[in-house]
Structure formats: structure tokens, C-alpha cells
């Protein structure tokens, strides 16, 4: 009997990653769960009946990425790669350190690109393979206090689209999933206060995982979760000045939240 397809899931120890792992488990995938927090990965693996593999790896290092690629190869090679690991730091741009700007671009853009490249040989061995890049609504809408994050996710969206078209004559699909605000630890006090002040809806990680499964099963190239976000992403692409105006009207509220909650960046990216 042939083995079920192997899915490499980065950011598996995080909020969205854990929900994705459970949903992919239910879909019958074999999982290689990736993160830095070994305890969380072990707990997740246990909650899924210890049927899956996991590896602790700092994906910002070449050693971490090599170890992951090697482990996946030993497990028979990946059929699905989900680039879900990511970082965020909401901050006024003038308060963000050079290190935090670099880390944001590294983890959200460079690492998914390098991992994708490193996995292409394995994915090419399969009759059908899929890469899913987890972006953000902020990968289509530039938003105040998310300049570095937006730059990284806009970049990831561009990378996804270009690679999808480059591989369109091969059996490797490249998909882009863009969640909106989701209830995970990536959102601290500041992000939550901002979402409340702006009336932004926060999804559950399980809803994002459900969208992932839907996308994988129906091969939808691009998914932006949530109606207003989907609408504004489209509008921003066609009439960006309308979105400029809508967002600048909210800047007063945003400045108040920034002032009340902190004066700059609230936490360093670890
Ligand atoms: N939550 C939201 O509001 C939201 C909205 C839109 C898009 N997203 C995107 O969804 C994805 C998942 O985010 P989340 O909300 O689940 O955040 P999260 O709970 O903070 O999880 C982030 C994950 O990234 C991993 N990670 C970070 N740096 C790493 C590194 N150097 N090496 C290896 N793994 C690393 C973390 O691993 P360890 O903890 O083990 O280090 C963790 O598993 C991200 O790409 C994020 O940008 C989230």
C-alpha cells in the first residue's frame, strides 16, 4: 500500500500552525511538523496520536533549513510544503530597529523563498505537489504601523505569483493563503487594542485551517479570508487612492491607540 503524502508544515508550534496540523491530520496527510519550541511540537504530536514526525529547527539558519530538507527526504520526500512560519511587530516605522526590520523580511519572505527552492527537487519527484505560502491581508493592503510586515507579505505574494507562473507547465501548484487578523500569540496587546478600536474582526485559527483544506482540495490559487479584507485588497489593486483616503481617515484612531498602548515597538522579534 502506498504511503499517504508527506506535508511539511512550518510554524506548526504556533496558533495557526497547530490548527492546520489538526486539519491536515484529519485529511489523512503524513505530517512533518516544524518549529523551534520542542515542547509545543511534542504536545501537538501527542494530541495527534504520535503518528507524525516533528523537527525543531531555526529556519533563519542554513543548518535549520538543511536539517529539515534532509529529514523530509528520509521520510520519502515532501508532496506538500506549507510556508506558514512568520513573525510580526506592530510599530511606528521610525521606532523599529534595523534588526527587527531585517528579521521580519528574513522570516516572512527570504526563508519561504529559500525553503521553497531547497524543496523543489523533492517536490518535482512527485506526480503532483503543492506549495502553500501563508501571506496576509496585509500582503495586499499597505497598513500604517505594519510597514515592514506589509513589505514582507507583499513580497511573498509576488514571489508566489511569479513562481506559480514559472512552474505552470509542471505538476507543482503554488498557492497563496492570506488570513486576516487571527486569534494567536502573534497578536500582542497593541495589535488587539488596534483591532478592537478599528472594529476589525478576529478569526479563529481553526477557521484559517478550514480555508487551507478547502484551498488544497479545490486548488484555488489565491485566498484572502474575510469579506471586507477581500474587497479592500481588490479595490487597493485597482483604485489605491480610494483606500489611501479610507485608511487616512482612521489614522487619528490608530495614533490614539499607539499613544495609549506604547510609544513604539512593543516587543523585539525573537
Ligand atoms: N495571527 C494573525 O493575525 C495572522 C494574520 C495574517 C497572517 N498571519 C500569518 O500566519 C502565519 C502563522 O502565524 P500565527 O498567527 O500562527 O503566529 P504564531 O502563533 O506566533 O506562530 C508563529 C510560528 O512561526 C514560527 N517561527 C518564528 N520564527 C521562526 C524561526 N526562526 N524558525 C522556525 N520557526 C519560526 C514559530 O515557531 P516557535 O514558536 O516554535 O519558535 C511559530 O510556530 C504567519 O506567517 C503570519 O504572518 C497571521
Ordered list of secondary-structure elements with their pairings:
Blueprint: E1 6-9, H1 15-26, E2 30-35, H2 38-47, E3 53-56, H3 62-74, E4 80-83, H4 98-124, E5 129-134, H5 147-166, E6 172-178, H6 189-198, H7 205-218, E7 222-224, H8 227-238, H9 240-261
Parallel strand pairs: 1-2, 1-4, 2-3, 4-5, 5-6, 6-7
Helix pairs in contact: 1-7, 3-4, 4-5, 6-9, 8-9
The structure holds NADP nicotinamide-adenine-dinucleotide phosphate.
NADP nicotinamide-adenine-dinucleotide phosphate (NAP) binds at residues 11, 13-17, 35-37, 58-60, 84-88, 107, 134, 136, 179, 181-182, 184-187.
Q: Domain count, please report it.
A: 1
Low-confidence stretches: none
- Strand count, sense and closure of the main sheet? 7 strands, parallel
How many strands?
Answer: 7
Number of helices: 9
Spell out which ligands are present. Answer: NADP nicotinamide-adenine-dinucleotide phosphate
Fraction of residues in helices?
Answer: 40-55%
Report the CATH architecture: 3-Layer(aba) Sandwich
CATH class: Alpha Beta
What is the straight-line distance between the termini?
Answer: 43 Å
Shape: globular
What class, by secondary structure content?
alpha/beta
> Any idea what the radius of gyration is?
18 Å
Q: Could you report the average pLDDT, rounded to the nearest whole number? A: 96
CATH homologous superfamily annotation: NAD(P)-binding Rossmann-like Domain
Taking strands numbered 1, 2, ... along the chain, how are they ordered across the largest sheet?
3-2-1-4-5-6-7
Strand content: 5-15%
Listing every helix as H and every strand as E from the N terminus to the C terminus, the arrangement reads EHEHEHEHEHEHHEHH
CATH names the topology as Rossmann fold
